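One thing: could you explain this record?
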Amino acid sequence: MYLRPYSHPPHVPFVLSSSSSRYATFSDADLLAALRTDDEGGFTEIYQRYCYQLFTLAYRKLNNREVAEELVQDLFENLWNRRASQEIEQLKQYLFSALRYRIINYIKAQQVRAGYELYCRLTGTQADTATEDALAHGELSAALLAGVRKLPTKTREIFQLSRLEQYSVAEISGRVNLSEKTVEYHLTKSLKLLRGYLRDFLVPILLVLCHC
């Protein structure tokens, strides 16, 4: 993927516009020592030294400029706010590890949100807190799709037309050449089977969650 030159780093409000040239000659260890003494110039040099590399990593992983900037800004804000308490030995290694952690958490959060929306859309019900906990483990979306695949062929077809493609009962009736009453029967059957499948799936997951 081609990444355009990043001439304007993400904005961190408290970063100075430029750091003294003497900081440019500092080693990472020297910059960490300066950071621990509340030296804003040292912090600015850290920012300028690594901001572009960190942004590039986040952007390539997420393909979202705004989110990449937010994650990098959050990383540097955290570095400054916890400058006196953090025990950092290798600055570059710490920064990239911390950013990867944020990227993973962001991706997981997106998966949870997508899974929750899928659950509500497929079942037409509102998930409870326990179901959201299961979603956080990244399992429910796969279970939903597996459950749909287990439905009888005609029932699955009607279910997908209704819940995924948003066709009305009358429209489905015309598409599959069945009466509206028969379509409703298949929809009721599909929801009953799917809820039963999800219930069987969630029980062991929730037992694990309760002991985490």
